[in-house]
Amino acid sequence: MTALTVKRADGILTVQDMGRPGHLAQGLSRGGAMDRRALLEAAALLGARAPLAAIEMAGAGGQFSVDAPTRIALTGAPMSATLDGEALRWNATHLLQPGQLLQIGGARSGVYGYLTAAGGITSEPWLDSRATHLSIGIGTPLAAGDALPCGDDPAPERPAHGLVPESRFDGGTIRVVDGPHTALFDADVLEAFYATAFTRGPRGNRQGVQLAAEARFTTDHAKGLASDLIGPGDLQMTGDGVPYVLMAECQTVGGYPRIGTVLPADLPIVAQAAPGAILRPRRVSLDEALAAARPEEAELRDLAGRCAPLVRDPATIHDLLSYQLVSGVTAGDDLDRG
Asked: Is 146 exposed, middle or buried, given 0-12, 13-18 or 19+ CB atoms closer than 10 A?
């Protein structure tokens, strides 16, 4: 068993995995990582067969140490990272030794970064998940001094690997499929909505993200609308016509009209959009939405195929002379002497 210790917490740090699906009837939303793809990338880099529980770092990281050798993966929003003062590559794995200090700074782009130990965080699960769910009080943000139990690294000798991630940290286009309330909006409102380049608004957290624009998108049919089930990705309008994309810890029932639903594949773009980033909705058909749906197991296999061993730059290796760079040196006259 390995302990991953938080020496200092600079951002909002929580333990997250893929959440708790299947409990809407009990009023519990799925929760889990805001950027699920980042956990899949970490699993691929570490050679794991499934996503592992990790530390989600909102805005910034902190300082960390381990008490046994273990590889870690750094994925999600790119953040500055050093190990004993030496810069580390993001979207890559690195071997941490006891006594070394891992320092992770603020996000350079995006919002959520992830620190994943090769053995995964092994805290006590609840409903088959270790995910912190802040909105209903499951777990709390991590603080300095917290020591997280992790499984032993199954392959500490595995070479460091890197991965070029899909671009999703500066806003972009998000695909939206019609939902049960789309027909409640007039055609001109729908046309205006899909012609708008929204700014990721100042209001946003693990429950939902505001899409800001001068225009408002209302429907005369909102009054008396019966509450029904909602979930991550639903594009819900407030009473004054401001859209919010519901995220991992959204409520399970709502009565505001929903103009559509963001495809699961594009939710990481919303999650990683920092305030001010531009998000452009694009309306897609149900057939296109179904064609874009992929099992996360298949996505993990594809990501694993894209991982490659890291090639270190000799200029960044402070102890280069300690490496045996040449072997089998001779005087060049071996054949003559033979």
From this structure: middle
